[in-house]
Amino acid sequence: MKIKDIRVIVTSPGQNFVTVKIITDEGIYGVGDATLNGRELAVATYLEKHVVPCLLGRDASRIEDIWQYLYRGGYWRRGPVTMAAISAIDMALWDIKAKACNMPLYQLLGGASREKIMIYTHAHGSTIEETVEAVVQKKEEGFQAIRVQCGVPGLDRIYGISKLNSGPRPDGGFLPDEDIWSTEKYLPFIPKVFERLRDVLGWDTHLLHDAHHRLSPIEAARLGKDLEPYRLFWLEDAVAAEDQENFRHVRNHTTTPLAVGEVFNSIWDARDLIREQLIDYIRTTSCHAGGVTGLRRIFDYAAMHNVKTGCHGPGDVSPITMGVNTHLGLWVPNYGIQEFADYCPQVMDVFPSTWTHNKGFMHPGDVPGHGVDIDEELAARFPYERAYLPVNRLEDGTLWHW
Ligand code: GCO
Ligand code: MG
């Protein structure tokens, strides 16, 4: 089965998505997600100019060889742009292989290890009471795990929440928004949010929190300690993780479980964290960390070291990634949890999907392949809109981690 054509499709049904569609000479096709929020066209160009011409005519069944060809063969290894491109090609090739075998992807991986996968959703508010209300509502909808973010008194915006599916911005969307941040205001406040939440909810709901890389190791250690009484499921991105050593400081001081990995794109970003058990959950996701092939490698390594999975799944990765992650989650022995931010109906119309969610759990469906497609005609009606993630500054103007 030879690769006959590869299309790179950029569409913006409320959010920019980059999709790869690989078509074979036998008529079977597969799709993959190459979305890199705020840098979409870099990946699309990398694919179109450098990757697609090298793959036409190749045997579509040789997934591992193609992965190595693009990774090792490119000489310049890793990096978010390259790895998003490789991820999409890999996802599309696994889709093709599973369709050719007439199996849902999770069967090819080794079959289901569970009946369904637990997901976590988001809840936030600008005050503690608004946040409590939002969390209670998600609990009533049936979610057992909820990521909670709360506005910090003295800071304008609820941090770490990107404006998903909000369409073009009034300013034309050409420049990133600028947020203001103060760790001094955040650190003493956030434990109060969880204290109140435990009062209201009791102990049978999993609560998660995302510090979005903003703390220094010693600040993160303090936060982890202060949150211990409220038994979080995890504290996410407590520190920036370019330096994996940062996590050792945090780990040494707190029993709050730690999660990281949404910005990682290969096993090398997480090697020390996993090998030395400095984290509890690895959050790499299929469209950024090498597709099925890349994630499977990371997950197996994590399983050897008591680290569970917790894939990134915000609204700014496409439903294809959610589908692939759900297959991986149904199979992987060391499953932890999957993030689920849901999509507006327009996005789901462009990406018809067989995955379903119900009362806090997902299932990928049982059709051959990964179960997500793209409606190309509809996609063409939503052209790319330039958009960025916000940037972040301290109150004195210093550029900070967003
Ligand atoms: C999360 C994330 C997102 C990211 C976004 C960047 O945990 O879901 O932190 O909200 O900020 O995906 O594109
Ligand atoms: Mg996050």
Architecture overview:
This protein has 402 residues and is α/β, with parallel strands linked by helices. The protein folds into two domains: 3-104, Enolase-like, domain 1 (2-Layer Sandwich), CATH 3.30.390.10; 108-367, Enolase-like C-terminal domain (TIM Barrel). Helix content is 37%, strand content 18%. It is built from 13 helices and 16 strands. The chain has helices at 40-55, 63-71, 80-100, 105-109, 128-140, 183-201, 217-227, 246-253, 267-275, 291-303, 319-331, 345-350, 376-379; strands spanning 3-11, 17-24, 29-33, 117-125, 145-150, 178-181, 206-210, 234-236, 258-260, 281-282, 308-311, 337-339, 356-358, 361-363, 391-394, 399-400. An eight-stranded parallel β-barrel has the order 4-5-7-8-9-10-11-12, surrounded by four helices. The chain has a three-stranded antiparallel sheet with strand order 1-2-3. It has a three-stranded mixed sheet with strand order 6-15-16. Helix 7 (217-227) links the parallel strand 7 (206-210) and strand 8. The longest helix is centred in the first third of the chain and has 21 residues, at 80-100. The model has no long low-confidence stretch (mean pLDDT 95). The structure holds D-gluconic acid and magnesium ion.
